[in-house]
Amino acid sequence: xxxxxxxxxxxxxxxxxxxAQEILKxxxxxKIDILVPEPSDIxxxxxxxxxFVVSDNxxxxxxxLEGTLIRKADYKGLDVEAVYVNTSHVYVVEEFTRKIKMFSxxxxxxxxxxxxxxYGGRNKGYEGFTYNKAxxxxxxxxxxxxxxxxxxxxxxxxxxxxxxxxxxxxxxAATYYDHHLWxxxxxxxxxxxxxxxxxxxxxKWEIPxxxxxxxxxxxxxxxxxASDALERLYYFxxxxxxxx
Length: 244
Description:
With 244 residues, the protein is mainly beta.
């Protein structure tokens, strides 16, 4: 019994230390206005040469690394909130319809549509989507009330769901970088670094960005955040390079 109590106390202290630690504030090194209406998420291309940006208005764009438009997919969705890119496809998530649409690369032709049922509020559905390499699953994040992550297999079929409790007030974007999951909270204006195996919080940083709804890491390891309301990209140095 004594050993059990000590173990439990150790776990509690470990989690307490994460939440008690100082939350550093990141300052952008650059800001760029982009011609994408209400950008709701961004993803870095696998070749490191471009960004894919989705819009609340239902569009999928490709831009250069400075946010200049290259092309727009022949597609009009409904309330698009998340995007993920690998070497062969671009995945786009519609919050209202609960659908994931898969576009081929390099031509951006729609190949597949999958519906992932969820009966939460219309504006409290899917907001983050990425591939979790540590578990070999796609991680699909529900915005809030409650915070959930659904794990999907390679066919986009749900294989698991996890309640994230009070991790944040909301989740507005997600990405996988440097062997970890990273999620963004618009309401908290905070970036969270998560353990990709159990989604526990390892570190967090505050950002001065209004209505932050997209995040990705560039090939140089630095961070890009999209502001929906301001239609702007914010560029930050890698947060892990900042000393606490």
